[in-house]
Structure of Phage tail protein:
Amino acid sequence: MDLQTLDLLKLQTKYMRDDETVIGLSAALGGQFKRIASEIVKVMIYSQTDQLPEEALDVLAWQFGADWYDANASIETKREAIDNVLYLAQIRGTPAAVQRIVEIYFGDGRVEEWFEYGGEPGYFRVITNNPEATNEKATQFIKSVNSVKRKSAWLEVVILEESTPLNLYIGGAVHVGEYILVG
């Protein structure tokens, strides 16, 4: 049912369609329904984050209580953060929440718990290959991680991995022969 094309008179029973009062009310309310339907689109903010201006994204982050949100991030990062705000609220306090923050702010990376790398109990580390994980972003990133991590877990280190494709050549030789001792 589309409110823009809704005809209230057609929804009435056969006998009520001939009543003058019903005809008048249907005509009057039909116009109101169309006006309301055109306004409904304006309140569907959460489903239209890819079209919202930066200021609206900042207000949404405040409204949702996303204390891990970085107001200085790029608009693409802000949009991804707002798209994940409800999901992160559900999984807050888990390694998956930290992993999602890593993906939002660094794009690529992984979280390793202490038992995966032989560290001290209760610690974890973040490994990324994004060169933007420098001092400028590190402070905001650590603030974001501390906001979504389990309170008893501690970030030990952020490791920046760098990988470069290399040509690797391997060679080998086999020499088969006999030794003859004379003398």
